[in-house]
Amino acid sequence: MLEARSAVRSLHAYRPPLAGRQGLRLDFNESTIGCSPRVLARLRSLDPDTLARYPEREPIEALVASFLGLDAAQVLLTNGVDEAIHLLCSTYLEPGDEAIIVVPTFAMYAIFAQAEGARLVEVLSGENFAFPLEDLLSRISPRTRLIAIANPNNPTGAVAALEVLLQVARQAPQAAVLVDEAYFEFHGVTLLAPTDRPANLFVARTFSKAYGLAGLRIGILAGNEEQMAMIRRVASPYSVNAVALVALPEALQDQGYVENYVAEVKRGRAVLQRELGAIGLHYWPSHANFVLVRVGPTHAEFAQALRARGILVRNRHSDPGCAGCVRLTLGSEEHTGMLIAALREVVAELSLRPEVKA
Predict the structure, then answer these.
(1) Is the peptide bond before 198 cis (omega within 30 degrees of 0)?
(2) Which single residue of 23, 146, 228, 353 has CA 20 to 30 Å from 195?
């Protein structure tokens, strides 16, 4: 009888609640205004021949590398950051190896690592979700072969200093250290800039958030040229589809569109955090396009009450250290205004007790 590998059979299936998402989507950290009009215009001009050919990503990788100030050999375009994580795990993890993650964080780090038969080592974030440097360093062992860190982190919006992340990479030279910068545009600080990056350090980016291209599934994995050559050995040459490759140059060239949206999100983030403090909801200052809020025992009712008002948010109650928490995505200023108006109604309806902000 055919059976999946034991590592796969023991995995906890990750099924994001994507069904029935009608309303203002503030639950998956997507752009609320969509992609650049230039991207849409280019997509409308697609011809049948473009879709009939296998996609060629190398010319677009060279363009992206130039945009990032890197060599083309240091950059791999991927089917979203998910594929980048998967490739790192496939390239570096053997059964019995250890993979370290700081929790709470993005679920796919654990899933892809455990699927390779690696043992997951979870390090709990510090007080107010501070990066637990000393705890993490103490868990590094000769079996550590992967360390995955989201910066800014999801779902907390917390960040670690670049020197701290470089210290992690230097302390574990035998491990692939992934710094996932999916929310880079809303933070503005990157590990791609330092010229003394360790050879075991990798940086991932996505076009799903600030660029509004989540449906096209396109991301970036960047790292040392020799290590990237190893990763290319296990990467499919066709994993990034032709439509995404056609759209990406237009998205990169319309930086004004991206910058305007990011500026709106940042202004809305400040307004939302002030409002949360004023109405007495406990939140953590964020460096991303979302804010984590502690609602308390009525977290499910809170999310449902917003949904009834046409606003979708994400319940993060089951994440480590996030009991009673809900994550609120930020979008355009108009959409943030809609969220705040609904929040005031829901807080009054549920008679939520004020708490002191973190």
Answers:
(1) no
(2) 146
CA 345 to chain centre: 30
- pLDDT-based confidence at residue 276 (cuts at 50, 70, 90): very high
Residue 109 pLDDT greater than 80, yes or no: yes
- What is the rounded radius of gyration, in angstroms, for the C-alpha atoms of the chain? 21
pLDDT at 353: 53
d(CA 166, CA 207): 24
**Taking residues 45-66, what's their average pLDDT?**
97
Task: Please write down the HEC assignment for all residues of the chain.
Answer: CCCCCHHHHCCCCCCCCCCCCCCEECCCCCCCCCCCHHHHHHHHCCCHHHHHCCCCCHHHHHHHHHHHCCCHHHEEEECHHHHHHHHHHHHHCCCCCEEEEEECCCHHHHHHHHHCCCEEEEEECCHHHCCCHHHHHHHCCCCEEEEEEECCCCCCCCCCCHHHHHHHHHHCCCCEEEEECCCHHHHCCCCCCCCCCCCCEEEEEECCCCCCCHHHCCEEEEECHHHHHHHHHHCCCCCCCHHHHHHHHHHHHCHHHHHHHHHHHHHHHHHHHHHHHHHCCEECCCCCCEEEEECCCCHHHHHHHHHHCCEECEECCCCCCCCCEEEEECCCHHHHHHHHHHHHHHHHHHCCCCCCCC
Residues 290-326: tens digit of each pLDDT: 999 999 999 999 999 999 999 999 999 999 999 999 9
What domains are there in the chain, each with its CATH number? 6-30+256-350 (3.90.1150.10), 37-253 (3.40.640.10)
